[in-house]
Amino acid sequence: MPGSEVQGVYGYGCRGENGAPAVSWSTAFRLRQFARGSLWLQPLEGCLLGVLLGSVVVRVDESVHLPSFWSYTPSTATTLLSAIVGAMAALTGFVVTVTVLVVQMATGTFSARYLRLWYRDRMLKILLALLIGTLSYSFTLLRRVEGRFVPNLGVSIAGFLVVINLLLFVVFLDRFLHRLRPVAVAEQVANYVNRDFEHYATFLAEPDVFSGVFDPAGEQPTLVVRSVKPGAIQAIDVRGLAGWAREHDCLIVIRHQIGDFVPADARLIETYGSAVSGTRAEGKLRTMIVLGGERTLEQDPAFAMRIIVDIANRALSSAINDPTTAVQALNHLSDVLRLIGTTDLSQSRWRAGSTIRTGLVIPARRWEDYLMLGVTEIREYGRAAIQVVRRMRAMLEELRNEVRAEHRPAVEEELARLEVTVTRAFADSVDLDRAKTPDPQGIGGRTNLPGQQWMTR
After folding, report:
1. What angle separates helix 41-63 from helix 122-144, to the nearest 10 degrees?
2. Nearest to residue 155, comparing CAs of 140, 166, 167, 168?
3. Around Cβ 178, how many Cβ atoms within 10 Å?
4. Angle at CA 190, nearest 5°, toward 3 and 111?
5. How far is CA 37 from CA 41, 42, 115, 304, 319, in A?
6. Are 390 and 437 in contact (CB under 8 A)?
7. pLDDT value of position 16
8. Do both 220 and 110 map to the same domain?
9. Is 17 among the domain residues?
10. Distance CA 269, CA 227 (A)
11. Is residue 176 domain-shared with residue 210, that is, in the same domain?
12. Any domain includes 74
């Protein structure tokens, strides 16, 4: 269920019979990540189910008498099942080949970070599971074909499964041919943000959870938890940490934000207030932060933005030189930035000089950080692409009118930086006035939108 998935990601662990955690939160999170990213787990399940279904169908065939037009001779059944086994093996190899080609194209054209979404795709896993399941099912039936017994029902089901496999393969091929377009990848990543950001904002709004930087002002922590190994912070158990802080009447401070790479023996957590110490407390707190080899999307919307920005950067490179793709990436960045900029996160903000000493402080990103991530590199790499700077100006002017009032100065600053960049890049160009004109489509869109003031030469 989607709700249970969100709860697992944002702070609910697995519980045993007495309400105690059956496994630690970090272990449960890693298991979910492994299950989502594994390409062999579901095919293995399909293989085992195929063997089980084949055995059950053989038992049913022994007790059921089918009409004569559903009967097969032993030689026909053997030939048909052998052909199905070979065809499923060949089709599985072809799907794997397509997957490898897409991986190569995605790495060279989109972003290496996109692969994290590719190998999570359910359609790919379902197709592989069904192909291998049909193979194992047909092989199980083939072993039972004898001179005096033919699993007629099972052979007919095998033929039906072949048709299903072929139809699903066509759907798979159509799906991934469409996903080879950079704009489709950007749309997919933006959808992840739209799906998860509300939950991200919800866990920041939890009681006793604050976003910001805690300044101890000379106060020494009562407990320091350090990282055992290097890695990027993939997720934290917000509810677990906040509950632990309430239970021990202390303030827990996370020293690195989600997505940061933390070296070994670096400070992860500090506690202030209650005198809590000991390796048991350190171990408990350490299990509420997950370190991994790379960032994830679940609690890190900036990572999704990073993927979209990477797509635009690749498109603007001299090797590809495709500014229209960068404009399409800006379209989806505009949607993501608008979502973040219109969300009220002020209630959870940690105030300087606050006297609160019970709760959890997380160094979450500010609006300025998201905006800088979304526009800086694209502005620099696309400064000479007229449609890119026109689309970016239109995006920033729209954001200025839509985001919360406290975020507008940051948008004004980005507009000023864009103005300086465009003026320098087009200083000797006859198109300076056009480069300073906002256009929602880059070039060719409507440029006289009501309520907008054009900056012309």
Report:
1. 40
2. 140
3. 9
4. 120
5. 9, 11, 10, 17, 31
6. yes
7. 45
8. no
9. no
10. 9
11. no
12. yes
Predicted local confidence at residue 448, as pLDDT:
62
Tokens encoding 46: 């399909």
Amino acid at 69: F
**Category of 225 on φ-ψ map: left (φ > 0), alpha (ψ -120 to 50) or beta:** beta
CA 383/CA 312 separation, integer angstroms: 13
Q: What pLDDT digit, counting tens, does each position of 104-136 carry?
A: 776 667 777 777 777 788 889 999 999 999 999
With b for 16 or more beta-carbon neighbours within 10 A and e for fewer, the 400-421 pattern comes to beebeeebbebbeebbebbeeb
Same domain, 152 and 286: no
Whether 216 and 259 share a structural domain: yes
Question: Same domain, yes or no, for 176 and 211?
Answer: no
Please report the pLDDT score of residue 433 as a whole number.
Answer: 92
Q: pLDDT digits over 287-319, tens only?
A: 999 999 888 888 889 999 999 999 999 999 988
Question: Are residues 148 and 251 part of one domain?
Answer: no
The residues, any chain, with a CB within 8 Å of residue 200's CB and separated by 6 or more, are 10, 299, 301
Category of 318 on φ-ψ map: left (φ > 0), alpha (ψ -120 to 50) or beta? alpha
- Asked if residue 169 and residue 244 are part of one domain, the reply reads no
Average pLDDT taken over every residue of the chain: 87
Number of domains in the chain: 2
Cα–Cα dist 358/369, whole Å: 27
The answer to whether residues 55 and 140 touch, using CB atoms and an 8 Å cutoff, is yes
Residue for token pair 């009409």:
67
Residues 214 and 164 in one domain: no
Secondary structure, 3-state, 333-353: HHHHHHHHHCCCCHHHECCCC
> Residue 272: which domain range?
206-292
Residue 59 corresponds to which tokens in the numbers above? 């038992």
Q: What is the pLDDT of residue 11?
A: 52
Q: What is the pLDDT of residue 18?
A: 46
pTM comes to: 0.83
In a domain? residue 247 = yes
